[in-house]
Amino acid sequence: MRVGIVGAGLGGLSAAAHLVAAGHQVTVFERASTPGGRATSITADGFRLALGPTVLTMPQIVGEAFAAIGTDLESEVDLTVLDPAYRAVFADGSEFRVRHGRDAMTAEVREFAGPREAANFEAFADWLTELYRIEMPNFIDTQWDGVGDLLGKWRVLLRLARKAGFRRLDQAVASFLEEPRLQRVFSFQSMYAGVSPQQALSLYAVITYMDTIAGVFEVRGGVASVADALERVLRRRGVEFEFDAPVTRILRRKDGTGAIDGIEVGGDRRVRFDAVVCDVDLAVAYRTLLGIKAPRRTRRGRYAPSCVVWSAGVRGVPPAGTEHHNVHFGWEWDDAFAALDKGVRMSDPSTFVTVAS
Fold first, then answer.
1. Distance CA 229, CA 218 (A)
2. 97-122 burial by CB neighbour count: b if 16+ within 10 A, else e?
3. What's the pLDDT tens digit per position in 203-262?
4. Which residue from 37, 48, 58, 151 has the least number of CB within 10 angstroms?
5. What is the CATH code for 2-67+223-300?
6. What residue spans in the chain does CATH classification 3.50.50.60 cover?
7. Radius of gyration of the chain (CA)
């Protein structure tokens, strides 16, 4: 079967890997001149600046794409554990480091907040692990086709409820950890999904598990190197790539079935395929590629807040104690999220500073 893939982000590249492994003929179309999508970088004035993600969590997920085409992630990129994963800097001047490995993390908590809080963290880590074991196979690493699939997992939903998976995240974390600063450290991860800890359900704590229990990994050359490696291996397997090739429309048959049968590239070139994989944001795909009305939820849903990102090449040596990831928490916490909800500027925002090298 001939398959066209729209977008050479990590999702599109992973789809290409699994499709070519299954014996299909695959062509990937990308509007940019390089692969990676959001996981991309630019080179300027001697600096290589990451414009998207700066680390990997759960590297085995992208590793499955490499395995499908006969290699492994570690053979294709230089991957190392990031320890500390984070340096948290609080408004009162205190600092805390999120360490790799449960023993090291417990010791760090003990030094920061005492033996009682270290014991609390052990119970918290057990809870995170249980949530992950429930959510990963049943809700994350699985295929969903409708509400019926969810209802069919009612026993799993009960297990999740018993683990307080539907409680508010900030409340759940506070039920384990007494130190307010640590409550921030182990709940802010929900913001990666665009939801504040006050609004997120506890099931979002699975992101905290990925960050603080499973570990954070750094890729030499940045996460864009993962995309470069996938492209390189996929070419060896016969996958074709067209860069600087913006897909302007996904084509449908005119036989009344409405089935997809190709794409339009650059507004004037049509390429026929037996199937098309679209690695584009859903709302964008409906609005610009499919030519059909988007579902109500897509049209009227409330989108998560984004963030303002500065990428800078700085000459010199970082201040002593600087880590790869540095989270600077402001005095405000609840009020900062309330400002986001109101659509006004935060008076005391927290900042996330990545120093990649």
1. 15
2. bbbbeeeebbebbeebbeeebbebbe
3. 999 999 999 999 999 999 889 999 999 999 999 999 999 999 999 999 998 887 889 999
4. 151
5. 3.50.50.60
6. 2-67+223-300
7. 22
